Amino acid sequence: MLVNQGLLGIAFFEATAFIVLLVLFLIFQRDHINRYFRSWVAGWCVITVASLCEVALLSQNLPELWPAVVIGRVVATLLLSAAVVQFTNGEGKRSWPMLPLAGVVLFGVYYFQRGAALGYGNVAWGTALLGSAVSLWTGMMLWRSPLLRRGHGVRLLEGVFLLTGLHGLDRPLWPEHPLFLLRVAFDHLLGVALGIAMVVVVLEGARARTVELNEKLRRLTLLTTASTQTLSVQDVLDRVLAHLVESLGAAYGLVRLLEGEGDKAQVVVHASVGFQREYLDKYRKLSAKAPWVQRVLHKDCEFLR
Questions:
Q1: Which of 52, 67, 95, 131 is the most buried (most CB within 10 A)?
Q2: Bigger pLDDT: 157 or 249?
Q3: Could you tell me the CA-to-CA distances from 151 to 52, 138, 142, 208 in Å, in that order?
Q4: pLDDT, tens digit, for every residue of 49-88?
């Protein structure tokens, strides 16, 4: 009978859960091509390999694998943090230079951990503080991000990162702690919860995209129905403008049509949303020679989304 069978059972549970979550992430990646998700999958691959090394260490009594487990978890934390930075900043925006930061953290972990004794649970204070600092910094980024209001997945992700950082501050003292097995089990549970949180984030994002698509199809159906139920051009124009302004989340909208030719050409309001009657009566007809009208007529205009 193995002396450390409790630790082995905890590590085996974590490794199997990580493998299941990795399969889910690989399935999601086919339809989820965002940069942040690729970084997350890479980090999850590293943490899965580190958990398998932990199982091998405990089952075969190979203390030489402990540095690989520690460094692997730190590398995975950095990759997951980089994914969170890309996720909070959004696609196409510049983010923090993670590569220099990751290099400094890894160098520090190697420097502190090389003097630690080989064996399960032996973590240097510097390594523990660096790993906790990365997790706390990631959790604070999510806490201050406006994405926190999107759904439960981002809240869970933020909470797990903060708990992981706080829980690991005294990691070097765990081997002497009377509840050592409970501390290790809770740490592994937080790792699994991290993967579950990202699954919730992906599913909530897919649901939001589905709702948005259904809303666009509903508006298209309303526009099509309105155009087929009436022969009045004015009625169709009013309905189309009302649906367009609502779909863009705007409060005002105008439709001006060009009337007349030459010096007598004017742009006349034929449909409006949100404007007062006094404004429409005053500016219903404008000269087509106005600079902004000329830019529009020559298609020299900007479309902002």
A1: 131
A2: 157
A3: 32, 18, 12, 10
A4: 999 999 998 888 888 888 888 888 999 999 998 888 888 8
- What is the token pair recorded at 242? 């009302």
Indicate the burial class of 73 (C-beta count within 10 angstroms; 0-12, 13-18, 19 or more): buried
Sign of CA dihedral 67, 68, 70, 75: positive
Amino acid at position 165, single letter? G
Q: Which tokens belong to 302?
A: 């900007």
Q: What's at 169, amino acid-wise?
A: L
Cα 303 to the chain's mean position, in Å? 27
- C-alpha 295/C-alpha 281 separation (Å) is 24
Bridge partners of residue 257, in order along the sequence: 268
Distance CA 195, CA 253 (A): 45
- In whole angstroms, give the CA distance from residue 2 to residue 260: 94
Alpha carbon distance 103, 98 (integer Å): 9
Say how far apart CA 195 and CA 129 lie, in whole Å. Answer: 23
Q: What is the pTM of this model?
A: 0.69
Task: Provide the sign of the torsion angle of the four alpha carbons 78, 84, 87, 93, taken in this order.
Answer: negative
- Token pair of 172, please? 């070097």
Do 98 and 39 form a contact (C-beta atoms < 8 A)? Answer: no
What is the phi/psi pair of residue 269, to 5°? Answer: -70, 125
